[in-house]
Amino acid sequence: MKPNPQQSQGKFNKKPAASHAKAGQKQNPNFKQKHKQRKPASQENKPNKVEIRKMIRQKKAAEAEAERQKIQLEKEARIKAYKKQRLEKTKVISKRTQRGQPLMKDRMQLLLKQIEEMKRR
């Protein structure tokens, strides 16, 4: 077997040498890079893909919320109309004479109204 040579012979705490460009920056505080990567002016204000996706999601969520609100309002309007109709029907049916007999006149009008509605449909 061959003995493994030691990789660091000499100074143990020595750091590896930095690249040439970085060494220049550390030595000279006024060092300027010759080739900076710049974005064109049109791309600086342009949103990236993640931001575009976020905006699309927010737009879809707002549309969905508006649709839910619209459906909820329609549902409430239907319920209110049904309750009003039911109340009128109950009032007509519950009318009585002085002796406690039901009023046939109002009941006949209610039946006539229902028949006319069925003919329209």
Structure description:
- The protein is an all-alpha fold.
- The protein is built from 4 helices and no strands.
- The protein has helices spanning 20-27, 41-44, 49-94, 104-120.
- The longest helix has 46 residues, at 49-94.
- The termini are far apart.
- The relative contact order is 0.04.
- The model has no long low-confidence stretch (mean pLDDT 82).
What is this entry, summarized?
The protein is mostly helical and 121 residues long. The chain is built from 4 helices and no strands.
Low-confidence stretches: none
The total strand number stands at 0
Q: Tell me about the largest β-sheet.
A: none
Task: State the shape.
Answer: rod-shaped
Mean pLDDT: 82
Query: Using only CA atoms, what is the Rg?
Result: 43 Å
| Class derived from helix and strand content | mainly alpha
Distance between the termini: 102 Å
Number of helices: 4
Order of helices and strands: HHHH
Sheet-strand content, in percent, reads under 5%
User: Helical percent range?
Assistant: 55-70%
